[in-house]
Write a structure and sequence with these properties.
alpha/beta; 3-stranded antiparallel sheet; 15 helices; disordered N terminus; binds 2-acetamido-2-deoxy-beta-D-glucopyranose
Length: 535
């Protein structure tokens, strides 16, 4: 268990702060397993995790363009009522549009989508409860139609091009049959540390597990997080340590510049704008945000990397945290999936992390990848039941960079995909420099005066913790609950700025690199017009 020692330090300035610097002494005693080194042309891996879409919803219709892809042809259907054999059926369509509101993707909603009931013993699962579960959210067919629907490839032209030019994975699953945050946690740490839902208070305190960032740092390999409103990677507590302060870069100022100068580090995480405002629309693909913005963002990231002197050593991986309630026809794996760390999820489900979530879109891009590659499963490697899921990212990074140990039992089990960049003797020279411009899907502008979503509220609560506002409010449930999107955006951007400022100051004071800065707004700050409230 980590020991926590608290040191206090004060700084007097116009607005005085009190920094509480908590020292985490971690006793590392993980069993080490070695990963074989491989010959590797890749020196930079870039990871982009989009939000809440299933494979069939985003890419299923691309089967028309390449029959090798395990997608859809419209024969797929779900009944309105699983128990009623004469029930109306919803067939999978090709006219997905702007989706608002957001379909269900809690643990219990997903169980019903996958198994058609609360009984999760079917093997393989029938994948027949999506329409029924969607219907139950409002007792109208509208949501059922939305979830039984995929994009016409011409409405997601950026992906259409990437899929035909590079590699698409048609058997990559969410790591947990649960919502966003547990799955996002798997991407960089191969566990959710027991989380099966988005628990705002735990997220705001930060999850304690080791991450791929820690492994890279220990091996002397560079990484960088290019964030927009707030880095969601701060949900990992370790990343708040002072030693990682300079790993965070504002995307707008730094991503293109570092790429142009050939200075991107070995492991790069690009985070989206999670807050949807008129001037800066969200681009994370989270319903109801416009997929057009997400496509524009992927296009920008690709074109930036393509123009970089580092292009010939780069691998870009784009995936989706979870399926967001949208139908997928491929049964989720329920056999031979290891718990990462033995932690059992909370009541009432007591989930043992022994099955995966719904299939999600994953695309890999590199000049070392053959045009039109379709990657199915990992074909029984490293174990007969291994699959691609989010832990495949750290597992593959470990192979590419020759890191010594796995994070958990899950990345040890997950399939790795370094093979897709090892078939050629030299990089391709025919990769497009530009991607097509997508069509705008949403009519009208961002609803910046809307109340924040659950996910956005989690980010606001994270902001409250790093800024120290949780001390004075009825944290955690209330912070941000009545902010608008626009207010939330200002609040979190301000919090991030101040947290990093405080970090720079603490570093100047010579505070140890292992510390995490905890800020407290001063009493005067508290009593005057609360600086924490946005204009
Ligand atoms: C659609 O795909 C299914 C499953 O692969 C197949 O059985 C069916 O014949 C196909 N239907 C059409 C119209 O191609
Ligand atoms: C599943 O269980 C919940 C209670 O946990 C119940 O409300 C719901 O109706 C059940 N769903 C089905 C499809 O049986
Ligand atoms: C839908 O109808 C059922 C049965 O009439 C009812 O129990 C349920 O509360 C309704 N759900 C919503 C979201 O209106
Ligand atoms: C990438 O490699 C190709 C083939 O060797 C070469 O033609 C091209 O100039 C290289 N590009 C960069 C940015 O180094
Ligand atoms: C879940 O675990 C708790 C505590 O161990 C136990 O009381 C409860 O009965 C378990 N629930 C189920 C459904 O197994
Ligand atoms: C939020 O709620 C609190 C108390 O419920 C209220 O005092 C405050 O004015 C509200 N703020 C906004 C922006 O609605």
């Amino acid at each position: 268990m980590p020991h926590r020692i608290t040191i206090m330090a004060t700084k007097s300035s116009k607005r005085s702060f009190l920094y509480t610097l908590a020292l985490l002494v971690l006793i590392t005693s993980c069993p080490f397993t070695s990963v074989d080194a491989v010959s590797n042309p890749i020196k930079t891996v870039v990871v982009l995790v989009m939000e809440n879409r299933s494979f069939d919803h985003m890419l299923g219709w691309m089967k028309k363009l390449n029959p090798e892809i395990n997608g859809v042809n419209g024969s797929e259907s779900n009944p309105l009522s699983v128990r009623d054999p004469t029930s109306k059926r919803f067939f999978f369509k090709e006219d997905a549009q702007y989706v608002d509101p957001d379909p269900g993707h809690s643990f219990q909603a997903i169980r019903e989508q996958i198994f058609g009931s609360n009984d999760s013993s079917a093997d393989p699962p029938p994948m027949n409860g999506f329409a029924q579960q969607a219907y139950s959210m409002g007792n109208t067919s509208a949501m059922s139609n939305d979830v039984m629907n995929g994009f016409d490839p011409d409405n997601v032209v950026v992906y259409k091009t990437l899929v035909s030019e590079f590699a698409v994975f048609d058997r990559w699953f969410a790591s947990v049959p649960a919502s966003t945050q547990p799955n996002r946690l798997y991407v960089h740490s191969a566990t959710s540390h027991g989380a099966t839902s988005n628990v705002a208070s735990l997220l705001a305190q930060g999850y304690p597990q080791q991450t791929i960032f820690d492994n890279l740092y220990d091996a002397g390999i560079g990484f960088g997080i290019y964030y927009q409103n707030i880095p969601a990677t701060l949900f990992y507590r370790n990343l708040r340590k002072l030693k990682y302060l300079f790993k965070f870069h504002p995307y707008d100022l730094s991503f293109k510049q570092h790429a142009n100068e050939g200075k991107l580090p070995s492991y790069v995480v690009v985070e989206q704008r999670y807050m949807d405002t008129k001037l800066f629309p969200a681009n994370d693909d989270h319903p109801s945000h416009d997929v057009y913005q997400g496509q524009m963002f992927v296009k920008e990231v690709y074109e930036t990397l393509r123009a970089s002197p580092q292009w010939n050593e780069t691998l870009l991986v784009i995936t989706y945290d979870e399926h967001g309630g949208f139908f997928d026809h491929v049964p989720t794996p329920v056999r031979g999936v290891p718990s990462p760390d033995g932690i059992v999820g909370p009541e009432p489900f007591n989930f043992t992390f022994d099955r995966l979530g719904v299939r999600v879109p994953t695309i890999a891009v590199s000049p070392w990848i053959e045009k039109g590659t379709v990657v199915h499963g990992p074909m029984g490697s490293p174990t007969p039941t291994s699959e691609y899921e989010h832990s495949s990212i750290p597992a593959t990074v470990k192979k590419l960079f020759n890191l010594p140990s796995f994070l958990t039992k899950r990345d040890e089990w997950a399939g790795t995909f370094e093979g897709i960049v090892q078939t050629r003797t030299e990089p391709r020279t025919d990769c497009p420099e530009k991607l097509p411009t997508p069509v705008k899907i949403r009519q009208g502008e961002a609803k910046e005066d809307a109340k924040v979503s659950e996910f956005q509220q989690e980010l606001i609560q994270l902001a409250a913790v790093i800024k120290g506002d949780n001390i004075f409010t009825s944290y955690p449930d209330r912070v941000g609950s009545n902010m608008t999107v626009k207010q939330g955006k200002y609040y979190m951007e301000n919090a991030v700025r101040r947290f990093f400022e405080a970090g720079r100051y603490a570093k100047k004071m010579g505070v140890s690199e292992e510390h995490i800065v905890h800020m407290k707004p001063s009493l005067t700050t508290r009593l005057s017009k609360p600086t924490n409230i946005v204009p």
